[in-house]
Amino acid sequence: MRKTIEEKKTIWYLCDGEKEDCKKTHCYKNTKENPCRHTKDISHAVNFRKETRGGHEIYREAGCD
Question: Which residues lie closer than 8 Å to 3 by C-beta, 6 or more apart?
């Protein structure tokens, strides 16, 4: 049985605040009033780092070695 769009889970990451095309206007770097601190883009996740293994780019959680 395939999951529908409504059944798929969204993964949120702690954001580095560096995404240039972010459409959110309340980034934690710009305001203290109810700021956004999360992103769905793993390349801007604070606690993940990109590595190349066997010719493939992967993301690993930092500090879990």
Answer: none
